[in-house]
Design goal:
Helix content: 55-70%
Number of strands: 2
EC number: 2.7.7.7
CATH class of the domain at 34-96: Mainly Alpha
CATH topology of the domain at 34-96: Topoisomerase I, Chain A, domain 4
GO molecular function: chromatin binding; DNA replication origin binding; DNA-directed DNA polymerase activity; nucleotide binding; single-stranded DNA binding
Shape: flat
Protein name: DNA-directed DNA polymerase
CATH architecture of the domain at 34-96: Orthogonal Bundle
GO biological process, one term: mitotic DNA replication initiation
Strand content: under 5%
Structural class: mainly alpha
Organism: Dibothriocephalus latus (Fish tapeworm)
Strand order of the largest sheet: 1-2
Order of helices and strands: HHEHHEH
CATH superfamily of the domain at 34-96: B family DNA polymerase, thumb domain
Radius of gyration: 24 Å
């Protein structure tokens, strides 16, 4: 973001003929979610979707009362869908991603154990 601010500061507000110059568009942004479930790498699709919806609501710039109502409504809707059983089973499957170095260590231990026999 500092890069875009520096470019805007250098950009002249008027061109040589007295006309105004269009401002630079804002830089593209990307939300990166970090949470205990994501850090531990055990999560389900439903948890990720609910978390993303809550963060999007919080960062929407709307008044806080409206944001709270939106989050509560979304959570109540999801809870009702869970109680009624309308969500598909894959939404609840826990995804456990094994880190590459852990996977390689596990494979190496199996390989060493196989060589000792």
């Amino acid at each position: 973001m500092a890069y875009a601010e520096k470019l805007r500061a250098r950009q002249p507000s008027q061109d040589q003929n007295g006309g105004t110059v269009a401002a630079l568009p804002p830089p593209p942004t990307k939300a990166e979610l970090k949470g205990l479930d994501i850090v531990r790498r055990d999560w389900c699709r439903l948890a990720a979707q609910v978390g993303r919806a809550c963060v999007d609501a919080l960062l929407s710039g709307k008044p806080s009362e409206e944001v709270l109502d939106q989050i509560h409504t979304h959570l109540r809707t999801v809870a009702e869908q869970v109680r009624q059983g309308t969500l598909s089973l894959p939404e609840f499957v826990i995804t456990k991603v094994r880190r590459v170095h852990c996977f390689l260590s596990f494979c190496r231990k199996k390989q060493v154990a196989g060589e000792e026999k």
